[in-house]
Amino acid sequence: MTRKSLRRHFLKDKEVKKLIQEFSRRFNLQLTEILEKDSIEVEVAEVGADVRVFLISGRPLLVSLEERLIPSLVFEELFRFLPRVVVDSGAVPYVCNGADVMAPGIVRVEGNFHKGDIVVVVDERHAKPLVIGEALHSSEELRKMKTGKAVKNVHYVGDKLWKFIKEIS
Fold first, then answer.
1. Measured between alpha carbons, how far is 22 from 25 in angstroms, rounded to an integer?
2. Three-state secondary-structure class, residue 125
3. Closest by alpha carbon to 29, among 83, 78, 84, 62?
């Protein structure tokens, strides 16, 4: 993800509407309500064939990875609506290096979700978002698990996407 290969352009109104609909379908939330705006302007930064960063009102809030829409780790307004997986301090260095979240490192699960849903992984001490992940089990199953992988790490603090987002912000 280098600036050389970066292409940026504003989305047309029709494309913005499609993005808002996809967001609503994916997260069962209204993007304009979360951002407290009636209308939004969206610029897209295309990095390669399968990564697009959507800058909404100048902020890189959403990412399309291989055609899958996820929030970036700077989309703090959204995190209060998403389910959380809270990990202990021993898990932090591992997940911040890209490791998937393992059941023994989970302190608690907040909210309800299904397998495949997007969750935010936060640290126990400061509740800082560390990872945007994909649940490998439902919240109900996760609360009972003692071993095994629990959440697939999709985007984490310090990854290439994180650094790119910081660079274009």
1. 5
2. coil
3. 78
Encode pLDDT of 57-67 as tens digits: 999 999 999 88
Q: Give me the residues paired with residue 35 across strands.
A: none
| Structure tokens, 23 | 């967001």
Among positive and negative, which fits the CA dihedral 10, 13, 18, 21? positive
C-alpha to C-alpha distance for 139 and 93, rounded to whole angstroms: 23
41-78: pLDDT as tens digits: 999 998 877 899 999 999 999 999 988 999 999 999 99
The contacts of residue 7 (CB under 8 Å, 6+ apart) are 45, 46
Residue 67's SS3 state is coil
Nearest residue to 149 (alpha-carbon basis) of 115, 112, 110: 115
- 0.90 exceeded by pTM: yes
Give dist(CA 131, CA 96) in Å, integer. Answer: 7
